[in-house]
Amino acid sequence: MRARFQRWGGPAVAMLLAACGSGRSGSAAPDGPSDASPRDADAAGAPDVPAAADVSVAPDAPPDRAPDAANQAPPAGPFTEFDVPTPASSPWGITLGPDGALWFTELVAGKIGRITVTGAITEFAIPTAMSDPFAITAGPDGNLWFTEEYGGKIGRITPAGALMEFDVPTPLPNLEGIAAGPDGNLWFTEADTNKIGRITPAGTPLEFAIATPQSYPSYMVAGPDGNVWFTEAFGKVG
Q1: Contact in structure between 217 and 238 (CB atoms under 8 Å)
Q2: What does each of the 238 residues of the chain score in pLDDT, given as a tens digit?
C-alpha cells in the first residue's frame, strides 16, 4: 500500500463544515433576520411543542423529516494526493518549514520527508533503527525538530537535510509531542516516563516530572501567555 499526502482547500471546506455539524449552521447580520434552525428558536424561548403533537412513526416507515445534515455524505473536496516514495511509510506529523516546504515524519519507514507545494518529495533516513519519528515542528533556530517515539531521541534536521539526534536522559521515554517554546527552546512530552522535556537548540536536554502519576503527556503547544501547554491522555491539560 502506498502512503499518500493530501492537499485540500477551496469553498468546499465551508460546505463540509456545515454538513458535518450537529444540525444546521446559522448566521445573521447585525440587527438583521437570522437563518438559525428551529432548535435555536427553542433555546431563545419559543414555546415547546406539546407532547401530544409528536408524530409516531412505525418501525418500517421512513421518518417524516429530512435527513440530518450530519448524516449526509460530505461534498467532494478539491483534493490533490501525492505518493510518498517509500511504500507503507505511515506519514504522521507535519509542519511548515522555514524554507516554505512542508516537512513530515514517516513513522514506520524511519524517515523525515520534505514536500514542496507542487508535490516534489525528498526523504531523509534517520540513523537510529526503529526510531519511529512522531511529531515535528519548526524550531527557533531555522531547523526542523522531531520526536522519536521509540528511538528515545530528539532529532534535528536542517533545511538542507543534515540530521542530528540527541539522547533524552531517561531511557524508554516514548516521546510524542514537540513544540517551539517562547524561551527559544524546544519542549516535548515523555508519555511513558511522565515527564516534560526541554532541549536547547544546541542539544542540551532537561526533564521535569509531572505531579500526576501516569498522566501520559501527549501533545503540546506554545500558549499566548508565554507558557507551554500540553495534554495528559488520562484527563488533564497541563
Answers
A1: yes
A2: 456 555 544 333 222 223 333 332 222 333 433 333 333 333 344 344 344 344 333 444 444 445 565 577 777 778 899 999 999 999 999 999 999 999 999 999 999 999 999 999 999 999 999 999 999 999 999 999 999 999 999 999 999 999 999 999 999 999 999 999 999 999 999 999 999 999 999 999 999 999 999 999 999 999 999 999 999 999 999 9
How far apart are the C-alpha atoms of 36 and 120, rounded to whole Å? 45
Q: What is the residue whose three cell numbers read 523525515? A: 112
User: Please, what's the b/e burial string for 177-213 (b: 16 or more CB within 10 A of its CB; e: otherwise)?
Assistant: bbbbbeeebbbbbbbbbbbbbbbebeeebebeebeee
pTM of the model: 0.71
127 to each of 17, 98, 168, how far by Cα in Å?
Answer: 41, 23, 16
Q: What is the CA radius of gyration of the chain?
A: 24
Burial class (CB in 10 A: 0-12, 13-18, 19+), 57: exposed
Cα dist from 193 to 55, 134, 220, 223, 232, whole Å: 56, 17, 16, 24, 12
- What strands, in cross-sheet order, belong to the sheet with 228-232? 217-222, 228-232, 236-237
Contacts for 190 with CB less than 8 Å, ≥ 6 apart? 168, 170, 173, 174, 175, 176, 196, 197, 207, 217
